[in-house]
């Protein structure tokens, strides 16, 4: 996955916060940037984002309109998966990550790891968090706990053939 520069991130923020398709002029008008940007600069950034796969473009009369290809949450999740893929020991990286999250975030992760018959969206009271917990079928399957598996309770399986032991109390 390609990375976003500061200006690209600002443009994506505009697209993610919009209700629909925007022209380059509309994006430029909504940009909250430290300097005024020329329309052609915004157009160049949008074209670069389209090549990277972050933006979709459609023809509208004489102009093009742009929209984000994926939600902000999908892009962040993909970046996290890419970063995790660079670790020599994914299990250790996950444990360190879990150790750095807030208690509320840890609870969200705990609920997301509940057995398959539990719906993670129903387990979250906050509607925004419920939307973020909705599985995206285009991404790899989430980690799942496997109680009673040969490796014991608290084992977490990934789509690779590794199993990681995470104590139930989060330590």
From TrEMBL:
<keyword id="KW-0805">Transcription regulation</keyword>
<feature type="region of interest" description="Disordered">
    <location>
        <begin position="119"/>
        <end position="171"/>
    </location>
</feature>
<comment type="similarity">
    <text>Belongs to the BlaI transcriptional regulatory family.</text>
</comment>
<dbReference type="GO" id="GO:0045892">
    <property type="term" value="P:negative regulation of DNA-templated transcription"/>
</dbReference>
<feature type="compositionally biased region" description="Acidic residues">
    <location>
        <begin position="119"/>
        <end position="128"/>
    </location>
</feature>
<dbReference type="InterPro" id="IPR036390">
    <property type="entry name" value="WH_DNA-bd_sf"/>
</dbReference>
<dbReference type="InterPro" id="IPR005650">
    <property type="entry name" value="BlaI_family"/>
</dbReference>
<keyword id="KW-0804">Transcription</keyword>
<protein>
    <submittedName>
        <fullName>BlaI/MecI/CopY family transcriptional regulator</fullName>
    </submittedName>
</protein>
<dbReference type="InterPro" id="IPR036388">
    <property type="entry name" value="WH-like_DNA-bd_sf"/>
</dbReference>
<keyword id="KW-0238">DNA-binding</keyword>
<dbReference type="GO" id="GO:0003677">
    <property type="term" value="F:DNA binding"/>
</dbReference>
<dbReference type="Pfam" id="PF03965">
    <property type="entry name" value="Penicillinase_R"/>
</dbReference>
């Amino acid at each position: 996955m390609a990375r976003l520069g500061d200006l690209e991130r600002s443009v994506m923020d505009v697209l993610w916060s919009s209700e629909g398709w925007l022209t380059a002029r509309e994006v430029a008008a909504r940009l909250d940037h430290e300097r005024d940007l020329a329309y052609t600069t915004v157009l160049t950034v949008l074209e670069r984002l389209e090549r990277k796969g972050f933006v979709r473009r459609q023809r509208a009369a004489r102009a093009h309109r742009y929209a984000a290809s994926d939600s902000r949450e999908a892009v962040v999740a993909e970046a996290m998966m890419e970063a995790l893929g660079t670790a020599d020991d994914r299990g250790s990286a996950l444990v360190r990550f879990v150790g750095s999250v807030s208690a509320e975030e840890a609870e969200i992760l705990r609920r997301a790891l509940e057995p398959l018959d539990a719906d993670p969206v129903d387990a979250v009271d906050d509607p925004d968090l419920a939307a973020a917990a909705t599985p995206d079928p285009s991404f790899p399957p989430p980690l799942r706990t496997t109680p009673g598996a040969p490796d014991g309770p608290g084992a977490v399986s990934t789509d690779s053939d590794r199993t990681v032991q995470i104590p139930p109390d989060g330590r």
